């Protein structure tokens, strides 16, 4: 790296990114040499960590994925893309991707609708706003492990004394074994409701923040134009104004769903139930289960990372996410 | 919808959202007989405060140790992340350097690869360093969050330049200006990020599960998870453990509401 940096090109580099404030200050603090030194002083520790704990693992993963690495992390047998082919031909991993898709198809729209509804309700009331906001946000304090525990051992434990079964009993309905078998797939109800409880409040806060930023004049103008408060205003004013937030929320929800691990692992017996096993649990069992198969697990992890990246990019392209984030 | 309808809907939702908390407290203060009785009891016959003592005396799971581990991990995770990521964010936002953009892209690229997906190679790396079952292994790999560094960068881009100009007149370099001017004027943002980082550190599960192979290095979440497969433990102790594990965060939530809400709104929208 060069220690003498032409000052004008440094300034250009900044303005090119759209960071306007750099225009008037070719000198900065100290000379260009001082700036280079300072830059590395500030970012160096982070970058070293990033290289060691993020880039090296990614590279190592890539390397492992091309080798037969069962029970060893220093493999010698190169197998090319076989691990990838195996994973894509492996019933369990492909099933886990299908499971994820089902999970995402349920959890993303419901969380979106529920957190938006809660935000609209809390936004509209005059009194006790802070109280309701706190109540819905409070589950965020709990971990997925805590929710799994309550859901599995008390709320939906399948025994007659479980809370859900007690409530059903009041209506004369027989106890349901919520987690005992995949038919009917009641376990989706258990897993999805736990996640809904945990995450709705978080996304509600995002929507509340966005709702507060909608200019009042828009609603006044709409009222003058004869739009009825309620559905019409919601559809033509509120929803379009929430577009940026909606895109961000859906993206965050999708990524979070892809990375589901905690509740599946805990609710479905350490992921041993082959039904309802998401990709991360499958990879965990591959790598840290009996086989210690780092080659296949790495290949699977990279397939998953690629899928997430594609979804992120596709959604960004499609809905214009990222324009807002770059300021 | 009229006002009554609004409050009615919110009331019903409130009850539903609070049921799990009620179950935790009810079960934590019950005897097993209260919990598993034939008919539903809304409240335990007698509040069993002795369950707290019983939980910490139980030798099968070192719960006190796990609490201590979680505290150390969450606190150091938070402090370390704040230090490392805020410095990087400032450097990226404010110090003109020829290759700054390339560095920024290298940081942004890591956002595309979620940490949860790289746990296999990370585990391999950390175990080859000999850090399995150690606090180092639990804390250090998590400090370098591209996401947090990016949030800091975005924040510092919006930080008023005039304040730093004043620092320059006073003869401070970047380093001095950062610590004497920028940080003291950004405490709200630091607080918001630290609360969120602390919560995610306290609630993390996958990484502690992978790294915490000896009981002595279990965090609270791993300890709780171990109850779910153990045959010997009593239900009331499991729920007492749950209650104890969420108490610190519930307190954080109650007392730091404002920063927390602000922080979530910030991170989410920019994320």
Provide structural commentary.
The complex is a heterodimer of chains A (327) and B (271). Chain A is mostly helical. Chain A has a domain at 104-141 and 179-319: MetI-like fold (Orthogonal Bundle), CATH 1.10.3720.10. In chain A, 67% of the residues lie in helices and 0% in strands. Chain A is built from 14 helices and no strands. Chain A has helices at 7-16, 32-65, 82-89, 91-124, 129-137, 144-155, 163-170, 186-212, 216-224, 231-241, 243-258, 262-267, 279-288, 294-319. In chain A, helix 11 runs antiparallel to helix 14. Residues 1-27 and 322-327 of chain A have low confidence and may be disordered. With 271 residues, chain B is mainly α. In chain B, 72% of the residues lie in helices and 0% in strands. Chain B has 15 helices and no strands. Chain B has helices at residues 3-28, 32-36, 50-57, 63-94, 100-111, 119-128, 135-139, 146-157, 161-169, 174-182, 187-203, 206-211, 220-229, 235-255, 257-270. Chain B is globular, with a radius of gyration of 23 Å. The model of chain B has no long low-confidence stretch (mean pLDDT 89). Chain A: Residues 1-29 are annotated as: Disordered. Chain A: InterPro entries: ABC_transporter_permease, MetI-like, MetI-like_sf.
Give, in order, the helices and strands of chain A: HHHHHHHHHHHHHH
CATH homology superfamily of one domain in chain A: MetI-like
What's the assembly state of these chains? heterodimer
Which structural class do you get from the secondary structure elements of chain A?
mainly alpha
The count of β-strands of chain A is: 0
- The number of distinct helices of chain B, counting runs of at least 4 residues, comes to 15
Low-confidence stretches of chain A: 1-27, 322-327
CATH class of one domain in chain A: Mainly Alpha
Spans of at least 5 consecutive residues with low confidence of chain B: none
């Amino acid at each position: 790296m060069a220690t003498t940096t032409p000052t004008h090109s440094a300034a250009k580099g900044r303005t090119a990114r759209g960071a306007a404030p750099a225009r008037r200050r070719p000198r900065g603090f100290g000379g260009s040499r001082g700036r280079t030194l300072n830059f590395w002083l500030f970012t160096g520790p982070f970058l070293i960590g990033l290289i060691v704990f993020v880039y090296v693992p990614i590279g190592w993963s890539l390397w492992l994925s091309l080798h037969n690495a069962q029970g060893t992390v220093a493999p010698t047998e190169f197998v090319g893309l076989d691990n990838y082919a195996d994973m894509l031909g492996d019933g369990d991993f492909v099933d886990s991707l299908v499971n994820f898709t089902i999970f995402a198809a349920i959890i993303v729209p419901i969380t979106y609708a529920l957190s938006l509804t809660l935000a609209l309700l809390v936004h509209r009331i005059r009194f006790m706003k802070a109280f309701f906001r706190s109540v819905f946000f409070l589950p965020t304090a709990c971990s997925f492990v805590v929710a799994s525990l309550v859901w599995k051992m008390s709320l939906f434990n399948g025994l007659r004394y479980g809370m859900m079964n007690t409530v059903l009993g009041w209506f004369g309905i027989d106890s349901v074994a919520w987690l005992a078998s995949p038919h009917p797939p009641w376990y989706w109800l258990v897993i999805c409701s736990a996640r809904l409880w945990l995450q709705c409040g978080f996304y509600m806060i995002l929507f509340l923040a966005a709702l507060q930023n909608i200019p009042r004049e828009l609603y006044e103008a709409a009222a003058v134009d004869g739009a009825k408060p309620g559905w019409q205003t919601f559809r033509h004013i509120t929803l379009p104004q929430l577009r940026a937030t909606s895109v961000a929320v859906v993206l965050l929800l999708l990524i979070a769903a892809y990375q589901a691990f905690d509740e599946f692992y805990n609710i479905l017996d350490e992921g041993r139930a082959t039904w309802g096993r998401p990709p991360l649990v499958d990879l965990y069992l591959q790598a840290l289960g009996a086989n210690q198969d780092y080659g296949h697990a790495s290949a699977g992890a990279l397939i998953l990372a690629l899928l997430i990246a594609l979804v992120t990019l596709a959604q960004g392209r499609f809905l214009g996410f990222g324009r807002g984030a770059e300021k | 919808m009229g006002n009554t309808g609004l409050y009615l809907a919110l009331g019903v939702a409130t009850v539903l959202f609070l049921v799990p908390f009620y179950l935790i407290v009810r079960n934590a203060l019950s005897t097993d007989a209260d919990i598993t009785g034939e008919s539903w009891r809304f409240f335990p016959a007698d509040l069993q405060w002795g369950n707290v003592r019983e939980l910490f005396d139980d030798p099968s799971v070192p719960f006190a140790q796990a609490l201590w581990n979680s505290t150390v991990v969450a606190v150091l995770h938070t402090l370390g992340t704040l230090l490392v990521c805020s410095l990087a964010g400032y450097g990226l936002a404010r110090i003109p350097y020829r290759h700054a953009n390339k560095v920024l892209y290298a940081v942004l690229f890591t956002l595309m690869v979620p940490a949860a997906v790289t746990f296999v190679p990370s585990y391999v790396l950390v175990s080859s360093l000999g850090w399995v079952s150690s606090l180092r292994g639990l804390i250090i790999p998590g400090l370098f969050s591209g996401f947090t560094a990016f949030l800091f960068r975005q924040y510092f881009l919006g930080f008023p330049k005039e304040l730093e100009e004043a620092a320059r007149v006073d003869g401070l370099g970047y380093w001095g200006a950062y610590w004497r001017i920028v940080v003291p004027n950004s405490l709200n943002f630091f607080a918001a990020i630290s609360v969120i980082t602390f919560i995610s550190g306290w609630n993390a599960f996958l990484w502690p599960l992978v790294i915490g192979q000896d009981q002595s290095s279990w965090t609270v979440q791993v300890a709780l998870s171990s109850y779910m497969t153990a045959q010997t433990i009593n239900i009331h102790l499991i729920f007492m453990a749950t209650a104890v594990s969420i108490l610190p965060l519930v307190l954080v939530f109650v007392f730091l509401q404002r920063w927390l809400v602000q922080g979530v709104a910030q991170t989410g929208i920019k994320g």
